[in-house]
Amino acid sequence: METTYNFLLDLALILLTTKILGLVTRRYNMPQVVGALLAGLLMGPACLNILHETTFIHDAAEIGVVVLMFCAGMETDIDELKKSGKASFVIALLGVLVPLAGGFAVAYFFNKPGIIDSDAGASAFLQNIFIGVILTATSVSISVETLKEMGKLKTHSGNAILGAAIIDDILGIIALTIVTSMADSSVSLGMVLLKIVGFFAFALIAGVAFYYGYKKWEELTNRPLHRHAIMVFVFCLLLSYCAEVFFGVADITGAFVAGLVVSKTQRTQWLASKFDTISYMLLSPLFFASIGIKVVLPAMNGKVVGFTVVLVIVAVLTKVLGCGLGAKVCGYKNYQCARIGVGMISRGEVALIVADKGSALGLMGSSFLGPVVIVVVITTIITPILLKFVFRFGPNGASGTGALASNYEQIEKYREGEMEK
């Protein structure tokens, strides 16, 4: 009986600690998402070892990030996203190439007998390239939640970050496929590219069909109904499932595309308010805490610690410089370049997934796993802090908090009847 219902205790501890630490971080002018991340680290194996990743936590966290990206899609200005499309590609491309080169250079220097001995089966060249591939990853969910909390998701910089992050995911998949195909002959690059193109063709057809069908259904009713929210969520989940299972594209990409489709409907604000509540109450705290709970820090010697320090610095600087340079080339102002570069720093759970896949294929030695985990932890925690800092410079931009109450503080104000008109 005790084992069966342990998930209830886990859930209670996660919600309690994320809220308490969220309030603490807000008191010190930091985004509350930092508190949720710290709660997972504090309660997980890295510190107190009270909570561990379970099937329930993993699955609920996955739903959490899907809802988060779905809401981000609903809040995105499609016209603005179209305008930043070419720029987003350039930003994402340089945001992949520069970290790839930086990671390779660091690994090339440290991954040698006598410095750090590797037990990986692949050649040293492939191992070094793979470290670079890990650094190309971007976990946009961290930046999205922070931008929503600050009310800056609809700024030019916020749209550029969203667009670049989606393209970054695609480029990251291609880079990972190229490296793994060199280590595993069963992986076909051509098939992966074909699936990516196939997904966007499928998403376009499914999105148009759903949009016109749902729009017609909305017009038949004079008021919003709960069944409307259920049906758009079904569409989100189905598109996320198809993206991951049939096309090998991240489920969050499918969720974001579904959100974009719903954003063009009549009652988007009402729909968003429904998802905001469940996200605030349950799913978002679970997702962000789960990232910290996954972290296990292995023992490391002095040389590995040195590699870790250098890798963290390179991981931060290469994203800021690469994405910032891409934004500058595309005509963004300096303060916008800084915002975009910082918004792409976080590696989050994406880098952990990539690292785990590489370890299984013999592309990364066990000595390098610890440094990668630390890179994930540090970049995940500092991204919200740095984002809030860089958004202090330059004009406020276009968004403000807007009508969609999608962050913790705004929802609380709704309930207290204090939301500004």
From TrEMBL:
Gene Ontology CC terms, in alphabetical order: membrane
Gene Ontology process terms (BP): proton transmembrane transport; sodium ion transport
GO MF entry, a single one: antiporter activity
Domain of life: Bacteria
Residue ranges constituting the Cation/H+ exchanger transmembrane domain according to the UniProt record: 15-391
Record's subcellular location: Membrane
Alphabetical list of InterPro entries matching this protein: Cation/H_exchanger_TM (IPR006153), Na+/solute_symporter_sf (IPR038770)
Membrane topology, from the record: Multi-pass membrane protein
Transmembrane helix is among the record's keywords: yes
Membrane-crossing segments per the record: 6-24, 33-51, 87-109, 129-147, 159-183, 189-212, 232-258, 278-297, 304-327, 368-387
Pfam families: Na_H_Exchanger
Record keywords, A-Z: Antiport, Ion transport, Membrane, Sodium, Sodium transport, Transmembrane, Transmembrane helix, Transport
Family (UniProt): Belongs to the monovalent cation:proton antiporter 2 (CPA2) transporter (TC 2.A.37) family.
PANTHER family: NAPA-TYPE SODIUM/HYDROGEN ANTIPORTER (PTHR43562), SODIUM ION_PROTON EXCHANGER (EUROFUNG) (PTHR43562:SF3)
Record-given protein name: Cation:proton antiporter
Species whose genome carries this gene: Blautia faecicola
